[in-house]
Design goal:
The complex is a heterodimer of chains A (252) and B (226). By secondary structure, chain A is an alpha+beta fold. Chain A has helices spanning 33-46, 118-127, 147-157, 164-168, 175-186, 195-208, 219-223, 231-245, and strands spanning 3-9, 18-24, 69-70, 73-74, 96-100, 109-111, 114-115. In chain B, 74% of the residues lie in helices and 0% in strands. Chain B has 9 helices and no strands. Classes of the chains: A alpha+beta (252), B mainly alpha (226). Chains A and B meet through helix 6, helix 7 and helix 8 of A and helix 1, helix 2, helix 4 and helix 8 of B.
Protein backbone atom coordinates (compact mmCIF):
# COMPACT_ATOMS: atom_id res chain seq x y z
CA UNK A 1 0.00 0.00 0.00
CA UNK A 2 0.97 3.59 -0.59
CA UNK A 3 -0.33 6.09 1.91
CA UNK A 4 -0.10 9.86 2.03
CA UNK A 5 -0.09 11.30 5.53
CA UNK A 6 -0.53 14.90 6.61
CA UNK A 7 1.18 15.00 9.98
CA UNK A 8 1.23 17.85 12.46
CA UNK A 9 4.85 18.93 12.87
CA UNK A 10 5.75 21.23 15.71
CA UNK A 11 9.33 21.72 16.89
CA UNK A 12 8.55 22.46 20.53
CA UNK A 13 5.85 23.75 22.84
CA UNK A 14 6.40 27.39 21.96
CA UNK A 15 6.82 27.10 18.20
CA UNK A 16 4.02 27.29 15.69
CA UNK A 17 3.30 24.01 14.00
CA UNK A 18 1.83 23.05 10.65
CA UNK A 19 0.66 20.00 8.72
CA UNK A 20 3.37 18.39 6.58
CA UNK A 21 2.66 15.99 3.76
CA UNK A 22 4.61 12.72 3.49
CA UNK A 23 4.32 9.76 1.19
CA UNK A 24 4.79 6.37 2.84
CA UNK A 25 5.57 3.51 0.46
CA UNK A 26 5.60 -0.17 1.36
CA UNK A 27 2.83 -0.05 3.93
CA UNK A 28 1.61 -3.54 4.79
CA UNK A 29 -2.09 -3.93 5.61
CA UNK A 30 -1.02 -5.89 8.68
CA UNK A 31 0.92 -2.97 10.13
CA UNK A 32 -0.53 -1.09 13.04
CA UNK A 33 -0.98 2.63 12.63
CA UNK A 34 2.08 3.21 14.82
CA UNK A 35 4.15 0.81 12.70
CA UNK A 36 3.18 2.85 9.68
CA UNK A 37 4.51 5.93 11.52
CA UNK A 38 7.67 3.95 12.42
CA UNK A 39 8.14 3.17 8.73
CA UNK A 40 7.72 6.83 7.89
CA UNK A 41 10.28 7.74 10.56
CA UNK A 42 12.76 5.26 9.05
CA UNK A 43 12.29 7.02 5.72
CA UNK A 44 12.80 10.42 7.34
CA UNK A 45 15.91 9.32 9.25
CA UNK A 46 17.42 7.80 6.07
CA UNK A 47 17.06 11.21 4.48
CA UNK A 48 18.62 12.87 7.54
CA UNK A 49 15.35 14.53 8.60
CA UNK A 50 13.98 14.75 12.13
CA UNK A 51 11.59 11.84 12.82
CA UNK A 52 8.03 12.48 13.99
CA UNK A 53 7.65 12.39 17.76
CA UNK A 54 4.65 10.42 19.05
CA UNK A 55 3.83 8.71 22.34
CA UNK A 56 3.61 4.94 22.57
CA UNK A 57 4.50 2.21 24.99
CA UNK A 58 2.83 -1.19 25.26
CA UNK A 59 1.35 -1.32 21.75
CA UNK A 60 -1.22 -3.76 23.14
CA UNK A 61 -4.01 -1.27 23.74
CA UNK A 62 -3.71 -1.29 27.52
CA UNK A 63 -1.23 1.40 28.58
CA UNK A 64 -2.92 4.56 27.37
CA UNK A 65 0.27 6.15 26.02
CA UNK A 66 -0.56 6.34 22.35
CA UNK A 67 -3.29 8.40 20.87
CA UNK A 68 -3.57 10.76 17.93
CA UNK A 69 -6.47 12.20 16.01
CA UNK A 70 -6.71 10.38 12.69
CA UNK A 71 -8.87 11.94 9.99
CA UNK A 72 -10.70 13.96 12.62
CA UNK A 73 -11.43 11.07 14.99
CA UNK A 74 -9.53 10.26 18.20
CA UNK A 75 -7.69 6.92 17.82
CA UNK A 76 -9.09 6.78 14.26
CA UNK A 77 -12.67 6.19 15.29
CA UNK A 78 -12.77 2.38 15.31
CA UNK A 79 -14.89 0.98 18.15
CA UNK A 80 -12.94 0.21 21.35
CA UNK A 81 -9.57 0.63 19.68
CA UNK A 82 -6.43 2.55 20.60
CA UNK A 83 -4.16 3.96 17.89
CA UNK A 84 -1.69 1.10 18.33
CA UNK A 85 -4.45 -1.44 17.74
CA UNK A 86 -5.72 0.28 14.61
CA UNK A 87 -4.45 -1.55 11.55
CA UNK A 88 -3.62 -0.24 8.13
CA UNK A 89 -6.04 -2.73 6.58
CA UNK A 90 -8.72 -0.29 7.66
CA UNK A 91 -7.37 2.14 5.06
CA UNK A 92 -7.22 1.89 1.29
CA UNK A 93 -4.22 2.08 -1.01
CA UNK A 94 -3.62 5.70 -1.92
CA UNK A 95 -5.52 7.10 1.08
CA UNK A 96 -4.74 10.55 2.38
CA UNK A 97 -4.65 10.50 6.19
CA UNK A 98 -4.52 13.54 8.44
CA UNK A 99 -2.78 12.97 11.79
CA UNK A 100 -3.04 15.58 14.53
CA UNK A 101 -2.21 15.63 18.23
CA UNK A 102 -4.91 15.77 20.94
CA UNK A 103 -6.14 19.36 21.03
CA UNK A 104 -6.96 20.79 24.44
CA UNK A 105 -5.92 23.73 26.54
CA UNK A 106 -5.02 21.27 29.30
CA UNK A 107 -2.97 19.07 26.91
CA UNK A 108 -0.28 21.40 25.52
CA UNK A 109 1.69 20.03 22.58
CA UNK A 110 5.29 19.18 23.53
CA UNK A 111 6.45 18.18 20.08
CA UNK A 112 4.75 16.99 16.88
CA UNK A 113 2.07 14.52 18.01
CA UNK A 114 3.10 14.41 21.69
CA UNK A 115 1.06 16.25 24.26
CA UNK A 116 1.60 16.79 27.99
CA UNK A 117 -1.14 14.93 29.85
CA UNK A 118 0.18 15.93 33.27
CA UNK A 119 -3.23 17.47 33.95
CA UNK A 120 -4.67 13.94 34.18
CA UNK A 121 -1.97 12.98 36.70
CA UNK A 122 -2.78 16.02 38.82
CA UNK A 123 -6.48 15.11 38.84
CA UNK A 124 -5.55 11.62 40.07
CA UNK A 125 -3.18 13.09 42.68
CA UNK A 126 -5.91 15.43 43.91
CA UNK A 127 -8.04 12.34 44.63
CA UNK A 128 -5.58 11.32 47.33
CA UNK A 129 -5.37 7.99 49.12
CA UNK A 130 -7.90 5.41 50.24
CA UNK A 131 -7.87 4.03 53.76
CA UNK A 132 -6.94 0.38 53.45
CA UNK A 133 -5.38 -2.31 55.59
CA UNK A 134 -1.70 -2.86 55.17
CA UNK A 135 0.13 -5.94 56.35
CA UNK A 136 -1.13 -9.42 55.57
CA UNK A 137 -3.38 -9.81 52.56
CA UNK A 138 -7.11 -9.69 53.42
CA UNK A 139 -9.26 -12.77 52.90
CA UNK A 140 -10.45 -13.07 49.35
CA UNK A 141 -14.16 -12.13 49.30
CA UNK A 142 -13.81 -11.00 52.92
CA UNK A 143 -15.51 -7.75 51.95
CA UNK A 144 -18.84 -8.46 50.27
CA UNK A 145 -19.38 -6.38 47.13
CA UNK A 146 -22.57 -6.70 45.08
CA UNK A 147 -21.83 -8.22 41.70
CA UNK A 148 -23.37 -5.30 39.84
CA UNK A 149 -21.22 -2.77 41.72
CA UNK A 150 -18.11 -4.83 41.14
CA UNK A 151 -18.83 -4.95 37.40
CA UNK A 152 -19.57 -1.23 37.24
CA UNK A 153 -16.44 -0.40 39.24
CA UNK A 154 -14.48 -2.53 36.83
CA UNK A 155 -15.94 -0.69 33.86
CA UNK A 156 -14.69 2.58 35.33
CA UNK A 157 -11.36 1.13 36.39
CA UNK A 158 -10.65 0.12 32.81
CA UNK A 159 -9.86 3.74 32.00
CA UNK A 160 -6.27 3.88 30.74
CA UNK A 161 -6.08 7.68 30.84
CA UNK A 162 -5.30 7.99 27.13
CA UNK A 163 -7.15 11.30 26.81
CA UNK A 164 -9.28 10.34 23.80
CA UNK A 165 -12.40 11.56 25.66
CA UNK A 166 -10.89 15.04 25.94
CA UNK A 167 -9.64 14.95 22.36
CA UNK A 168 -13.03 13.92 20.97
CA UNK A 169 -15.14 16.27 23.11
CA UNK A 170 -16.20 19.44 21.26
CA UNK A 171 -15.50 21.30 24.54
CA UNK A 172 -12.28 19.42 25.43
CA UNK A 173 -13.94 18.33 28.67
CA UNK A 174 -12.33 15.78 30.99
CA UNK A 175 -15.62 14.68 32.53
CA UNK A 176 -15.55 11.09 31.28
CA UNK A 177 -12.01 10.55 32.57
CA UNK A 178 -12.69 12.15 35.96
CA UNK A 179 -16.03 10.40 36.31
CA UNK A 180 -14.49 6.99 35.59
CA UNK A 181 -11.79 7.60 38.21
CA UNK A 182 -14.21 8.97 40.81
CA UNK A 183 -16.83 6.35 39.97
CA UNK A 184 -14.80 3.20 40.26
CA UNK A 185 -13.61 3.99 43.80
CA UNK A 186 -17.01 5.37 44.78
CA UNK A 187 -18.63 2.06 43.89
CA UNK A 188 -16.43 -0.02 46.15
CA UNK A 189 -16.46 -0.31 49.96
CA UNK A 190 -12.75 0.50 50.05
CA UNK A 191 -13.48 3.88 48.47
CA UNK A 192 -16.13 5.00 50.96
CA UNK A 193 -14.14 6.72 53.77
CA UNK A 194 -12.73 9.48 51.51
CA UNK A 195 -15.52 9.44 48.96
CA UNK A 196 -16.85 12.99 49.44
CA UNK A 197 -13.48 14.68 49.70
CA UNK A 198 -12.25 12.76 46.69
CA UNK A 199 -14.99 13.91 44.34
CA UNK A 200 -14.75 17.53 45.52
CA UNK A 201 -10.98 17.67 45.13
CA UNK A 202 -10.82 15.87 41.80
CA UNK A 203 -13.49 18.09 40.28
CA UNK A 204 -11.79 21.22 41.66
CA UNK A 205 -8.50 20.09 40.10
CA UNK A 206 -10.21 19.23 36.81
CA UNK A 207 -11.62 22.75 36.62
CA UNK A 208 -8.27 24.32 37.55
CA UNK A 209 -6.58 22.53 34.67
CA UNK A 210 -8.60 24.42 32.08
CA UNK A 211 -10.74 21.68 30.57
CA UNK A 212 -14.07 22.68 29.09
CA UNK A 213 -17.43 21.66 30.53
CA UNK A 214 -19.64 18.73 29.62
CA UNK A 215 -22.58 19.26 27.28
CA UNK A 216 -23.59 15.59 27.28
CA UNK A 217 -22.90 15.21 23.57
CA UNK A 218 -21.39 11.76 23.98
CA UNK A 219 -18.39 11.97 21.66
CA UNK A 220 -16.17 10.97 24.62
CA UNK A 221 -17.80 7.60 25.15
CA UNK A 222 -17.82 6.95 21.39
CA UNK A 223 -14.07 7.56 21.25
CA UNK A 224 -13.21 5.74 24.50
CA UNK A 225 -11.12 2.65 23.68
CA UNK A 226 -12.50 1.06 26.86
CA UNK A 227 -16.14 1.95 26.05
CA UNK A 228 -16.74 3.68 29.39
CA UNK A 229 -20.36 4.81 29.49
CA UNK A 230 -21.88 8.25 29.90
CA UNK A 231 -23.66 6.98 33.01
CA UNK A 232 -20.36 7.55 34.85
CA UNK A 233 -20.74 11.27 34.18
CA UNK A 234 -24.23 11.20 35.69
CA UNK A 235 -22.79 9.34 38.68
CA UNK A 236 -20.06 11.99 39.07
CA UNK A 237 -22.65 14.77 39.00
CA UNK A 238 -24.74 12.91 41.58
CA UNK A 239 -21.68 12.38 43.80
CA UNK A 240 -20.56 15.99 43.55
CA UNK A 241 -24.00 17.45 44.20
CA UNK A 242 -24.47 15.02 47.10
CA UNK A 243 -21.07 15.78 48.62
CA UNK A 244 -21.80 19.49 48.36
CA UNK A 245 -25.22 19.22 49.98
CA UNK A 246 -23.64 17.29 52.85
CA UNK A 247 -21.01 20.01 53.13
CA UNK A 248 -18.19 17.70 52.13
CA UNK A 249 -17.95 16.95 55.81
CA UNK A 250 -15.38 14.14 55.91
CA UNK A 251 -12.16 15.11 57.67
CA UNK A 252 -9.59 16.62 55.36
CA UNK B 1 -18.74 26.18 52.57
CA UNK B 2 -15.62 25.09 50.72
CA UNK B 3 -17.77 22.43 49.13
CA UNK B 4 -20.36 24.97 48.00
CA UNK B 5 -17.59 27.11 46.52
CA UNK B 6 -16.21 24.13 44.62
CA UNK B 7 -19.65 23.51 43.21
CA UNK B 8 -20.19 27.15 42.32
CA UNK B 9 -16.81 27.46 40.63
CA UNK B 10 -17.10 24.18 38.81
CA UNK B 11 -18.69 23.76 35.44
CA UNK B 12 -20.88 21.11 37.07
CA UNK B 13 -22.38 23.69 39.46
CA UNK B 14 -23.12 26.06 36.60
CA UNK B 15 -24.67 23.21 34.69
CA UNK B 16 -26.80 22.32 37.71
CA UNK B 17 -28.12 25.89 37.59
CA UNK B 18 -28.86 25.42 33.88
CA UNK B 19 -30.61 22.14 34.59
CA UNK B 20 -32.81 23.42 37.42
CA UNK B 21 -33.77 26.62 35.61
CA UNK B 22 -34.23 24.59 32.44
CA UNK B 23 -36.70 22.31 34.20
CA UNK B 24 -38.66 25.38 35.41
CA UNK B 25 -38.82 26.77 31.86
CA UNK B 26 -39.67 23.31 30.52
CA UNK B 27 -42.59 23.15 32.94
CA UNK B 28 -43.72 26.56 31.73
CA UNK B 29 -43.69 25.66 28.03
CA UNK B 30 -45.77 22.55 28.73
CA UNK B 31 -48.42 24.58 30.58
CA UNK B 32 -48.21 27.27 27.88
CA UNK B 33 -48.82 24.72 25.13
CA UNK B 34 -51.82 23.22 26.94
CA UNK B 35 -53.18 26.74 27.41
CA UNK B 36 -52.68 27.51 23.72
CA UNK B 37 -54.65 24.46 22.67
CA UNK B 38 -57.73 25.98 24.33
CA UNK B 39 -57.98 28.00 21.12
CA UNK B 40 -59.79 24.95 19.72
CA UNK B 41 -62.57 25.61 22.25
CA UNK B 42 -63.31 28.82 20.37
CA UNK B 43 -63.10 32.51 21.32
CA UNK B 44 -65.02 32.13 24.59
CA UNK B 45 -62.91 29.35 26.09
CA UNK B 46 -59.63 30.89 24.99
CA UNK B 47 -60.41 34.41 26.20
CA UNK B 48 -61.80 33.14 29.47
CA UNK B 49 -58.63 31.13 30.11
CA UNK B 50 -56.51 34.19 29.37
CA UNK B 51 -58.64 36.24 31.76
CA UNK B 52 -58.35 33.52 34.41
CA UNK B 53 -54.54 33.78 34.28
CA UNK B 54 -54.80 37.47 35.10
CA UNK B 55 -57.22 37.13 37.99
CA UNK B 56 -56.19 33.78 39.50
CA UNK B 57 -55.75 34.11 43.25
CA UNK B 58 -58.45 36.78 43.60
CA UNK B 59 -60.02 37.77 45.91
CA UNK B 60 -57.60 36.28 48.43
CA UNK B 61 -54.76 38.12 46.71
CA UNK B 62 -54.75 41.41 44.81
CA UNK B 63 -55.31 41.15 41.03
CA UNK B 64 -52.36 39.83 39.07
CA UNK B 65 -50.37 38.68 42.12
CA UNK B 66 -50.01 35.08 41.00
CA UNK B 67 -49.44 36.14 37.40
CA UNK B 68 -46.61 38.45 38.42
CA UNK B 69 -45.10 35.92 40.81
CA UNK B 70 -44.94 33.43 37.94
CA UNK B 71 -43.52 36.07 35.63
CA UNK B 72 -40.81 36.93 38.17
CA UNK B 73 -39.86 33.27 38.71
CA UNK B 74 -39.69 32.71 34.94
CA UNK B 75 -37.65 35.85 34.34
CA UNK B 76 -35.16 34.96 37.07
CA UNK B 77 -34.93 31.40 35.71
CA UNK B 78 -34.35 32.73 32.21
CA UNK B 79 -31.65 35.16 33.33
CA UNK B 80 -29.84 32.43 35.30
CA UNK B 81 -30.20 29.96 32.43
CA UNK B 82 -28.80 32.39 29.87
CA UNK B 83 -25.99 33.76 32.06
CA UNK B 84 -24.84 30.25 33.04
CA UNK B 85 -24.94 29.32 29.34
CA UNK B 86 -22.76 32.30 28.45
CA UNK B 87 -20.27 31.50 31.24
CA UNK B 88 -20.11 27.84 30.21
CA UNK B 89 -19.74 28.64 26.52
CA UNK B 90 -16.73 30.81 27.33
CA UNK B 91 -15.16 28.07 29.47
CA UNK B 92 -15.89 25.46 26.80
CA UNK B 93 -14.40 27.43 23.94
CA UNK B 94 -11.32 28.18 26.05
CA UNK B 95 -10.96 24.41 26.49
CA UNK B 96 -9.67 24.07 22.93
CA UNK B 97 -7.68 27.15 21.88
CA UNK B 98 -6.20 25.44 18.80
CA UNK B 99 -8.81 23.84 16.57
CA UNK B 100 -8.41 20.60 14.65
CA UNK B 101 -7.77 20.93 10.93
CA UNK B 102 -10.11 18.02 10.41
CA UNK B 103 -13.02 17.12 12.70
CA UNK B 104 -15.55 14.33 12.49
CA UNK B 105 -18.27 13.35 14.93
CA UNK B 106 -19.25 9.80 15.73
CA UNK B 107 -22.52 10.07 17.58
CA UNK B 108 -23.23 13.72 18.38
CA UNK B 109 -26.84 14.55 17.54
CA UNK B 110 -27.81 17.63 15.56
CA UNK B 111 -29.75 18.80 18.62
CA UNK B 112 -26.78 18.50 20.96
CA UNK B 113 -24.44 20.34 18.63
CA UNK B 114 -26.85 23.22 18.00
CA UNK B 115 -28.10 23.69 21.56
CA UNK B 116 -26.49 27.13 21.92
CA UNK B 117 -27.71 28.41 18.56
CA UNK B 118 -31.21 27.12 19.21
CA UNK B 119 -31.18 28.71 22.66
CA UNK B 120 -30.10 32.06 21.21
CA UNK B 121 -32.84 31.87 18.58
CA UNK B 122 -35.46 31.05 21.23
CA UNK B 123 -34.26 33.95 23.42
CA UNK B 124 -34.79 36.52 20.65
CA UNK B 125 -38.04 34.90 19.63
CA UNK B 126 -39.38 35.21 23.20
CA UNK B 127 -38.73 38.97 23.12
CA UNK B 128 -40.54 39.28 19.79
CA UNK B 129 -43.35 37.00 20.97
CA UNK B 130 -44.00 39.15 24.07
CA UNK B 131 -44.08 42.30 21.93
CA UNK B 132 -46.45 40.54 19.53
CA UNK B 133 -49.11 38.94 21.73
CA UNK B 134 -48.59 40.24 25.28
CA UNK B 135 -47.63 43.89 24.85
CA UNK B 136 -48.90 44.17 21.29
CA UNK B 137 -46.42 46.77 20.05
CA UNK B 138 -45.52 44.86 16.87
CA UNK B 139 -49.07 43.55 16.24
CA UNK B 140 -50.92 45.46 13.49
CA UNK B 141 -54.39 45.07 15.10
CA UNK B 142 -53.72 44.40 18.78
CA UNK B 143 -56.73 44.56 21.09
CA UNK B 144 -56.02 44.33 24.82
CA UNK B 145 -57.96 41.50 26.47
CA UNK B 146 -58.95 39.85 23.14
CA UNK B 147 -56.30 37.16 22.79
CA UNK B 148 -58.35 35.01 20.40
CA UNK B 149 -58.70 37.88 17.96
CA UNK B 150 -55.01 38.80 18.41
CA UNK B 151 -53.77 35.30 17.63
CA UNK B 152 -56.00 34.74 14.60
CA UNK B 153 -55.52 38.19 13.08
CA UNK B 154 -51.81 38.17 13.95
CA UNK B 155 -51.18 35.08 11.84
CA UNK B 156 -53.69 35.95 9.11
CA UNK B 157 -52.31 39.44 8.55
CA UNK B 158 -48.66 38.38 8.63
CA UNK B 159 -48.36 34.83 7.27
CA UNK B 160 -44.58 35.25 7.05
CA UNK B 161 -44.43 35.79 10.80
CA UNK B 162 -46.34 32.53 11.23
CA UNK B 163 -43.37 30.96 9.44
CA UNK B 164 -41.07 32.52 12.02
CA UNK B 165 -43.24 30.98 14.75
CA UNK B 166 -42.88 27.58 13.14
CA UNK B 167 -39.10 27.95 12.97
CA UNK B 168 -38.98 29.11 16.58
CA UNK B 169 -40.99 26.18 17.90
CA UNK B 170 -38.84 23.85 15.80
CA UNK B 171 -35.82 25.37 17.56
CA UNK B 172 -37.58 24.84 20.90
CA UNK B 173 -38.36 21.22 20.08
CA UNK B 174 -34.75 20.59 19.04
CA UNK B 175 -33.48 22.36 22.17
CA UNK B 176 -35.58 20.11 24.40
CA UNK B 177 -34.81 16.98 22.39
CA UNK B 178 -31.31 17.22 23.85
CA UNK B 179 -31.87 19.59 26.77
CA UNK B 180 -34.40 17.53 28.75
CA UNK B 181 -32.19 14.44 28.75
CA UNK B 182 -29.07 16.53 29.37
CA UNK B 183 -30.69 18.15 32.43
CA UNK B 184 -31.43 14.76 34.02
CA UNK B 185 -27.87 13.68 33.28
CA UNK B 186 -26.47 16.86 34.85
CA UNK B 187 -28.57 16.40 37.97
CA UNK B 188 -27.23 12.87 38.28
CA UNK B 189 -30.61 11.19 37.88
CA UNK B 190 -29.53 8.88 35.07
CA UNK B 191 -28.17 5.39 35.39
CA UNK B 192 -27.92 2.51 32.98
CA UNK B 193 -31.45 1.32 33.74
CA UNK B 194 -33.44 4.52 33.47
CA UNK B 195 -31.37 6.23 30.77
CA UNK B 196 -33.69 5.08 27.96
CA UNK B 197 -36.66 6.42 29.92
CA UNK B 198 -35.14 9.91 30.13
CA UNK B 199 -34.06 9.76 26.47
CA UNK B 200 -37.61 8.83 25.61
CA UNK B 201 -39.00 11.68 27.68
CA UNK B 202 -36.70 14.12 25.88
CA UNK B 203 -37.68 12.86 22.42
CA UNK B 204 -41.36 12.92 23.34
CA UNK B 205 -41.02 16.45 24.76
CA UNK B 206 -39.22 17.74 21.69
CA UNK B 207 -41.72 16.29 19.24
CA UNK B 208 -44.82 16.82 21.40
CA UNK B 209 -44.13 20.47 22.11
CA UNK B 210 -43.26 21.16 18.48
CA UNK B 211 -46.52 19.63 17.28
CA UNK B 212 -48.59 21.29 20.01
CA UNK B 213 -47.18 24.75 19.41
CA UNK B 214 -46.96 24.50 15.60
CA UNK B 215 -50.61 23.41 15.38
CA UNK B 216 -51.95 26.91 16.06
CA UNK B 217 -50.30 28.98 13.30
CA UNK B 218 -50.95 26.06 10.92
CA UNK B 219 -54.69 25.82 11.63
CA UNK B 220 -55.05 29.62 11.44
CA UNK B 221 -53.30 29.77 8.08
CA UNK B 222 -55.38 26.85 6.79
CA UNK B 223 -58.47 28.77 7.82
CA UNK B 224 -59.68 26.06 10.17
CA UNK B 225 -59.79 28.62 12.97
CA UNK B 226 -61.12 32.05 12.09
Amino acid sequence: MKITVNVWRQKNASSKGRLEKYQVDHVSPDMSFLEMLDTLNQQLMAKGEVPIAFDHDCREGICGSCGVVINGLAHGGQLATTTCQLHMRKFKDGDNITVEPWRANAFPVIKDLMVDRGSFDRIIQAGGFISAHTGSAPDANGTPIPKENADLAFEGAQCIGCGACVAACPNASAMLFTSAKVGHLGLLPQGQPERQQRVLKMVAQMDTEGFGGCTNIGECTAACPKEIGLHFISRLNRDLLGATLRGGSTVD
Amino acid sequence: MAAAMTLYRSTIGKKAIMAVTGVILYGFVIVHMIGNLKIFEGPKGFNEYSHFLRVVGEPALPAGTILWLIRIVLTVALILHVSAAIQLTRIDSAGRPVAYKKVKRKQASFASMTLRWGGTAIFFFVIYHLMHFTIGTVHPQFIEGEPYHNVVSGFQLQPLMAGVYLLAVAALGTHLYHGVWSATQTLGLNNRRNDKLFRGLAVLSGIGLFVGFAAIPVVVLLGIIK
